[in-house]
Amino acid sequence: MDGPDISVDLCGVLMENPVMLASGVLGETGPSLLEALEGGAGAVVTKSIGPSPREGNPNPTVVTLGDSLLNAMGLPNPGMEAYAEELEWLRQGSEAPVLASVFGTSPDEYAEVAARLAPLVDGIELNLSCPHAKGLGAEMGGDPAMLEQVVRAVVDVTDLPVLAKLTPNTGDIGALASAAERGGASGLVAVNTLRGMAVDVEMAAPALANTYGGLSGDALRPVGVRCVHEIAGMTSLPVVGVGGISNHIHALEYIMAGATAVQVGTAIRTDGPRILGRIATDLRDWLADHDHSSLADVRGILVRGGHR
Amino acid sequence: MRSRPVSVTGVRSETPTQCTIVLDWEPEAQPGQFVMVWIPGVDEVPMGFSSIGPSAAITVQRMGDATEALCALDPGDRVGVRGPLGKGFELLEGKRCLLVGGGNGVAPLVPLAEALVAKGCRVYTAVGARTREELLFIDRLAGIAGPAPEVATDDGSEGHHGFVSNLALRLMDEFRPDVVYTCGPELMMRKVADACWERSIPFQASLERYMKCGIGLCDACACGRYLVCRDGPVLTGEHLRGVPDFGSFKRGPSGVKVPFAAPDGGGSIGIGLGSED
Fold it and tell me: Taking a C-beta distance cutoff of 8 angstroms, is the pair B60, B80 a contact?
């Protein structure tokens, strides 16, 4: 395609553009992943998949807060066997890159799911950070030693790139990034949602059945950009930025702060996954307008040591 | 949009298993759109409108915690409403319309019939239920200008003995409608759809899926490449052609495929988003 080069090599995953579908949004079925790819995503990440079917939390599971969103889906997924069929269906219709998001209750369970899905995908993203499913995700991913064990267990069972998705619900995200690197991760994803609560004062009740949920969307962006900037300055691993991106300017915030690629989730709700392609196109146009020939011209320019 | 509280102004029993909850709420809704109704401490569920206007109403089939809780509400109680959501029926002008409703699926067809008549359409209706006691809104439909509703019951206790889909096929050939609108059990709608495709009659069908977010994010309500909350609940014959899910399976809360059971003589139990899984 004409114009500046926005293709990305994300630890071996080759993408035509840096805009990915974030895990948790769409991605529970093959057709929605295909829709996101046809909508212009450089790559897609699946809903987080565990070993067996899981219904998630009772409704209400979402509450919208302006341009932000609080959700407590609770990791619903059909389990790895049923989900493998969704991926097989997708693979018949598209060769574009797909990352499987994986969760479990132990390092072995993470490894079991990753190994099952690996033949059907191009990379593994570890959900180490879901803030609203008891005993899962963040409770493991908030402990550097446990996080390192999970990453190592998964790296041991697959040759695919393994990316660790980190929680912002920590005082020291750098320690989590270092632990992932020690465990052998190929890349990092920052951030998952920020733990929060909303109250319906008329009903005098929490707005979510689960009481606590994860904040995404506009309000999360400064937290995400800060986290990416913080870890990009201390690790040599590529970092994927996610949190509150709904246009190319938001994407550029993350990229200048050190992100190699970005993910978009909550913004899908406005007009569907076409927004992924639009952000990529606008990003290319912005680079052209600013006389850049490549995304690499601006990547990491705010990180200590300059260009990455 | 956030859920907001509205008061219940009345609850009335329609059939032994269905009740209507009238709300102190005037939504700007199109026939066929839905609303997420929140009963704190119980659930939040998608419901179609059985009345639109100064006092919007939903009509539910009692089949689980949420619908039982809705039917147990008293005037003055409050529920949360998030909506109207989704895409409703497209209203055509001056056409011959056949409306086919099964079970609780008749509910959204009543405001549809009213709107179509207001647009100068000639509206024929076919209504089915398991038994005569479960027939919904025959009187309301009879009060709308046009031919009296045609009735089918699975047990033959009133009208045509058998499924409303069979009755609908006969009416299609008798009335030669320009368009068919349908809401009810998906196996019934699939039969109606097949007949429409065969005869090259355009149709619109209101689908039901398990819903969580209601705003096109979570993928719980996927039907093929469509999200029922975002692209539906009303999908057209053009949308549905080639969608393997339609009439074959839905998704459970985990996303696993759940096949539609063959009718056990009860092809007309549901479902106009006024029920729940």
Answer: no
Fold of A8-58+74-197+216-297: TIM Barrel (3.20.20)
HEC profile of A163-183: EEEECCCCCCHHHHHHHHHHH
pLDDT digits (tens, 9 = 90+) for B63-80: 899 999 999 999 999 999
Mutate: best of A44, A49, A59, A64, partner B, most B CBs <10 A = A59
Chain B partners of A77 at a C-beta cutoff of 8 Å?
A: 254-255
- Quick one: pLDDT at residue A271? 76
- Per-residue confidence (pLDDT) for residue B271, from 0 to 100: 46
A130 part of the active site: yes
ipTM, interface predicted TM-score of the complex: 0.92
Q: Which of A25, A130, A164, A191 is catalytic?
A: A130
Nearest residue in chain A measured CA to CA from B82: A63
B28-42 per-position pLDDT tens digit: 999 999 999 999 999
Strand partners, B47: B35
Residues of A in contact with B40 (CB under 8 A): 200, 203, 205
| Alpha carbon of A28: minimum distance to chain B alpha carbons (Å) | 6
DSSP per position, A209-232: TTSEEEEEEGGGHHHHHHHHHHHH
Which residue in B219, B157, B168, B170 sits closest to B190, CA to CA? B168
